[in-house]
Design brief:
Layout (H helix, E strand, L loop, with lengths): L13 H20 L3 H7 L14 H25 L3 H21 L8 H16 L4 H19 L6 H4 L6 H4 L7 H24 L4 H12 L5 H26 L5 H18 L4 H20 L5 H21 L11
Amino acid sequence: MSLFAFGPSRGPRWQLGLQAALGLVVPIAVMTLLGQPMFGYIAASGAFTVLFVGALPVVERAVMLPFVAAGLIVCAALGVAAAHAPLMIGIGLVLVAIASAALAFGYRLGPPGPLFFVLVFGLSATVVRSAPITPLGYIAAISAGCAFSYLVAVSPLLLARVRARQPRPLRDLFPGPSWDADARMLVLRVVLVSVLGVIVSLFLDPARAYWIVGAAVAVIGIASSRRAAMQRALHRMLGTVAGAGVYALLALLHPSGLWLAALLGVLQFSIELVVVRHYALALTLITPLVLLLLGAATGSTGDMSIAMERVVDTLAGAALGAVSGLLHPREQPRD
């Protein structure tokens, strides 16, 4: 994973990118036209559903994605429940990170692993605490977003040739639970970074703990390797710093409404095209996307102090994720 070269292509990703973009754009655009943009920004988080098991046939994604969507909704509900109790947010963040990691690694869910479950918990707590929306309204919005994204993901089933393929049994799609040595190490690393991330946030801002923990979990990824931890940490740090600069430029345009929806769609589509080939470049796009979405939902778009906080949080989280990689034994040199 070099900073100066793209990784090998793993096949065309435009379809997954288009699905993720539609899951983001359509809720924002529709709710903006209906005069309720806040619900659109929240529902757009449901687009995370599309990002899982993207390499599988559609008939198998149709079986697996409801479990992913249910997990995201549960994490959102937990974040909403803890929103006004800082201590509960910290405890909940640790528990969500550990539980989602144990399930993702134990059942071989694959990329992006537990990351978005952690982020949805934190984003939900942040938005409900900061925005004029009821807890029930928030959960309804994100549930609708997950449902819409699921329909987008399985829309190819409208074609008879796609429906003709038989999915594997559920026990084959979700093998496990089984935690081998690599899975146990990954879960242990998530335990450590989530606890330490919450502790570090006490010296910065407890409300930002989810970003620190999320950055650390993102560095851990799904690869059980010391080298991968160091490489991903470097990509995460540099990509986020560059992404904060991109956000600053985009914020000067004060995007809103349909223009904001289109901008987020372009960013999301571009992310899916490059994320498996160059992580730092993907982070350069992911950072402004998340900051714009969060800013729109909380009314803080253009606040550069938030962007700088996210850079600090990412540096702290990425450092934790990289250091946790030292728990892996050194790779043996090849003959």
